[in-house]
Amino acid sequence: MSQLPTPESIQHAIAQALACERVEVEGDGQHFQALIVSAAFEGQSRIERHRLVYAALGDSMRQEIHALSMRTVTPREFEALGADVATGVRRPSGS
After folding, report:
1. Are 53 and 70 in contact (CB under 8 A)?
2. How far apart are CA 69 and CA 17, in angstroms?
3. What's the rounded Cα separation, in Å, for the pair 46 and 69?
4. Other C-beta atoms within 10 Å of 6: how many?
5. Side-chain half-sphere of 57: how many Cα atoms within 13 Å?
6. Do 20 and 39 meet the contact criterion of CB atoms below 8 Å apart?
7. Cβ atoms of 14 and 34 closer than 8 Å
8. Which ranges of the chain would DSSP assign to H, the alpha helix?
9. Bridge pairing between strands 67-73 and 83-84
10. What is the rounded CA–CA span in Å between residue 79 and residue 33?
């Protein structure tokens, strides 16, 4: 990623280095928000999960990405949320 990073380039870098069931990235070129669903997060603390993502992004995380907010969950956690975690909107109970 030698140019300004894009949501797509960040999404691609994460997906290439980490087995993900789902990766969504939004952002404006400097500030990004990501939802990453991966079985690799099983048994990992939030900090350990974020370290896996930082490792996937390599030097880009230090040099090109100004800010990255991450939601890192396992497939089971994603299903249990019953929500659109990318937007934080919960589905009503019973739906």
Report:
1. yes
2. 18
3. 12
4. 15
5. 26
6. no
7. yes
8. 7-17, 46-57, 59-63, 75-81
9. unpaired
10. 20
Between the alpha carbon of residue 71 and those of residues 1, 2, 84, 94, the distances in Å are 22, 25, 12, 24
Q: Which residue has the tokens 């030698």?
A: 2
Are 64 and 1 in contact by the 8 Å Cβ rule? The answer is yes
Q: What is the pTM for the complete model shown?
A: 0.81
Which tens digit of pLDDT belongs to each residue from 25-76?
999 888 999 999 999 999 999 999 999 999 999 888 878 888 999 999 999 9
Q: Are 29 and 66 a contacting pair, CB within 8 Å?
A: no
What are the beta bridge partners of residue 71? 35
Task: Report which of residues 20 and 80 the model is more confident about.
Answer: 20
- Phi/psi at 39 (5° precision): -65, -20
